Each structure stands twice: as C-alpha cells, then as structure tokens.
Amino acid sequence: MIETLTAEGLSVAEALRSVGMREAEYDRWRVEYNGLGRTLGSLLCAKPKPVKRTRRTVSSRKPSL
After folding, report:
1. How far is the C-alpha of 13 from the C-alpha of 42, rounded, in Å?
2. pTM of the predicted model as reported, rounded to 2 decimal places
C-alpha cells in the first residue's frame, strides 16, 4: 500500500502517516521482506492452477434405504 501511494506521488512520510504506520516499523518491514518479490515474483504472477474434480459415477454411490 505504501508503494502504491508513493507511486501516486506522495512522499514516504506522508504515505506512512496516511496508513498509520511508523517509519521504524516500515524500515523493519523493508529489511525483513526486501527481495521477497524477486524471490516469489514468478509465483506471484502465475495464474492459479484449476482444481481437478473427479466425478462420481452412479455405481459408486451408496444405496439409499
């Protein structure tokens, strides 16, 4: 969210204030997660694979009483 606001032209300090985050928290977050987008970049951009569902046949159903 901070990156989006800074891309729109706000300074980092103004973006942090609008979100309600302190600069120290933001700096700690950047140190911890910096480069995560590069590591997971291909996974974040990939389309999710559809879940294959198997169909039950009539013979696999339990008989109702």
Report:
1. 30
2. 0.47
